[in-house]
Design brief:
Blueprint: H1 21-30, E1 45-46, H2 58-65, H3 75-88, E2 92-96, H4 99-110, E3 116-119, H5 124-132, E4 136-139, H6 160-170, E5 178-181, H7 194-207, E6 211-214, H8 218-228, H9 237-246, E7 250-254, E8 265-269, H10 272-285, H11 296-308, H12 312-331, E9 344-348, H13 349-352, H14 362-374, E10 376-377, E11 379-381, H15 383-386, E12 397-401, H16 409-424, E13 432-436, E14 447-450
The structure holds pyridoxal-5'-phosphate.
């Protein structure tokens, strides 16, 4: 595996426990063959999510000690607002404790029953928050977003024809905003090009519809623009981000991703009247507008994290680490969604285990085997997650999300090695059936059994 070495050295370490195969076999049975039910301490490499799992820097931890825990007007809030405005450029900045609260505040204020929100592809919490507020969540990404083997530099792009058709079909007055998710998490962490953002803006100008960004992985997206989009190579990632956000009217953000912290989020907008209505609601559910459900120290860690995430040494290492794992697997003929995303590698379980049909959960069979073979935790994104209530997902994927600044290149080689060993004996893997499931969001708590 080849990639830029980690642009940091390690000052504090956290022990991870090694377990034996016998122990893991027992633990996965106790967990009902569901990796969500495992204890984190029994996992060697945890690739369940990149959300809230980042390692903070010495600079961020120093910022924690500079927390001002005044109820109102704490100094960290002003630093936080200054940094967010420098990067994102929006007039109003509202802190929240997670990204989904920003979504809830926005949609509960803007949506009325019967309205619709187009997005390239909605992330689960975005979709759920649109629906919970009576809205229709519509995906308008291009076909290529659903083709795992097709290489394309900007698979996250909005399909503009599809978007315009959607606006005409639903009616302009029923669409209070359009969202672009950067990078497109549900579509494999794939980026959106600057040109596509510009064109989306132009189209929305024609109809007078506001554009918001779901900005969780904005730095990774802007890095891909710098690497892949003609004419962008000479610009800094910060300049690209500033231009990108200038085409929008606001954004929602989960700081648990590209702000390199363990908790936090925010909501931005230029519309002062909208901001005022949302701040009134914020006081009811999150807290006073200068802390929004966070401690002062958290705001300081976010402000510092947002500066660090734009360092290009960091982004080069970050994206190359993910790509390194993807390339390692591809070299061994292991089927993955191409190209590698910004934050994760997705195994194509349908192609990996063609002998296991979707109703026997090939992705989950692979998740179980990753744990048994090497103590690695991943997450199924396929028939177990989306197949309830008659759903038929287009792909059977297993996501290996890479936490930021947490694992070394040796850890990544280990993961590739574990997957390689399973690949060699893939025909011996068997499917699963559901022993118990809850009425909704079943993948979190379902219990399964192996088919013999
Ligand atoms: C994580 C995420 C969210 C929700 O953020 P939380 O902080 O987990 O509430 C929204 N959109 C996208 C694209 C995400 O990845």
């Amino acid at each position: 595996m080849e990639f830029p070495a980690e642009p940091f050295r390690i000052k504090v370490v956290e022990r991870v426990k090694r377990t034996t195969r016998e122990e893991r076999e027992q633990k996965i049975i106790e967990a009902g063959y569901n990796a969500f039910a495992l204890r984190a301490e029994d996992i060697f490499i945890d690739l369940l999510t990149d959300s809230g799992t980042s390692a903070m820097s010495d600079n961020q931890w120093a910022g924690i000690m500079h927390g001002d825990e005044s109820y109102a007007g704490g100094r960290n809030y002003f630093h936080f607002v200054e940094v967010v405005q420098r990067i994102f450029g929006y007039t109003h900045v509202i802190p929240t404790h997670q990204g989904r609260v920003a979504e809830n505040l926005l949609f509960s204020t803007l949506l009325e029953p019967g309205m619709a929100v187009p997005n390239n592809i909605h992330f689960d919490t975005t979709r759920a928050n649109v629906q919970a507020n009576g809205g229709l969540a519509l995906d308008c990404a291009g076909e290529v977003a659903y083709q795992p083997d097709v290489e394309h530099p900007f698979k996250g792009n909005m399909d503009l024809e599809r978007l315009e058709r959607t606006i005409r079909d639903v009616g302009v007055d029923k669409i209070p905003l359009v969202i672009l998710t950067i990078t497109n998490n549900s579509g494999g962490g794939q980026p959106v090009s600057l040109e596509n953002v510009r064109q989306t803006r132009e189209l929305l100008n024609k109809y007078g519809i506001p554009l918001f960004f779901d900005a969780c992985r904005f730095a990774e997206n802007c890095w891909f623009i710098k690497q892949r989009e003609p004419g962008q190579q000479h610009r800094s990632v910060l300049e690209i981000a500033q231009e990108l956000f200038s085409y929008g009217d606001g954004c929602t953000m989960s700081a648990k991703k590209d702000a390199l912290v363990n908790i936090g989020g925010f909501l931005c907008m230029n519309d002062g009247e909208l901001a005022q209505r949302i701040k009134n609601k914020l006081i009811l559910i999150e807290g006073f507008p200068t802390y929004g459900g966070l401690a002062g120290r958290d705001l300081e860690a976010i402000a510092r994290g947002l500066e660090e995430v734009l360092e290009e040494d960091y982004l080069a290492y970050r994206t190359a680490q993910v790509k390194g794992l993807a390339d390692d697997l591809t070299e061994h003929g292991i089927p993955i969604l191409r190209p590698a995303g910004g934050h994760a590698v997705y195994l194509n379980a349908r192609a990996f285990l063609p002998h296991i049909p979707p109703e026997e959960f090939p992705g989950q069979a692979l998740v179980v085997e990753l744990y048994r073979e090497g103590g690695v935790r991943a997450v199924e994104i396929g028939s177990l997650m989306f197949g309830d209530n008659g759903g038929k997902p287009e792909m059977e994927l297993v996501r290996l999300a890479i936490p930021r600044r947490v694992y070394t290149s040796a850890h990544m080689s280990y993961v590739a090695h574990v997957i390689g060993r399973i690949w060699e004996r893939r025909e011996s893997l068997r499917g699963l059936r559901i022993a118990w499931e809850p009425p909704m969001l079943r993948h979190f708590s379902a219990r399964l059994e192996p088919l013999s």
